[in-house]
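Encode chain A's predicted structure.
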Amino acid sequence: METGETLGGRSGLNHKYAERVSLLWDLAVNDLRRAEKDTVLGWGWTFVRPAVSLIVYYVVFSLFFAMPDESPGVPYSIWFLSGMLPWLFHAECLGTGVYCFSEYGYLVRKICFPVYLIPLIRLISTFIIHILCIALLGALCIFENHFMQIRLIRLVYVCVCELFYTGTGLFVCALLAAFMRDMESLTAISLQAGIWAVPVLWNMRKVPRKFAELPAFNPMYHVVQNFRYAFGCEETPGSGLSLAVFQSVCAVLLLLCILLYRKLRAHLPDVL
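Encoded structure for chain A:
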């Protein structure tokens, strides 16, 4: 009897998790549809916009602003896009998701709904578009005869890294934004300044040696550097310091997620 109850309990738990995963996916897909629901092209705009943006970036930085010395042996457009894509995903996710608890306030007020899943809705919907952009960048690599330089295992690793870092950061920002309306402005300012603190628009090779380790203290440096390494645009995936900083910041953000959620969960329905 005990074995049967145990198996039944495990089956019920697995069914519960399967339902939550299915619900989360449906909400993420609906989040994508909601922005295009009144348009003629509908779902098409979800994929057309990032595709056009990438093609414009590619043409501009291939023909007009190419800088061959930035990454020897690598097309400048590929070097630039491989650093820009992870930053765009991070900025889009935080910039549009900081008020996700307010947007989904009707779910917060439903006691049976797991509120901690709400930031994941925006994270997944944004990541779907990010995957499309990665696929388009891969197609551009084929066009530039750079496809053989792609390291797929490293690409999977860096996608997991950016999901975890951006997801925990989004959860903390969104939870604080529900109680502090200034959080949207603070997030926007930090994103505007943050792009210059990460080697996206500039190259680490041009940093004086005495300042060479400073960018490693920015967690996004580890993501951008590994993304470029995955696309064969950098010789190394970064230093041990950048990895240690990234892991430490992720651990702190995860701890903040747990502590803030436990402390503020009961007050969310009131403030929303």
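The chain has a mean pLDDT of 81.
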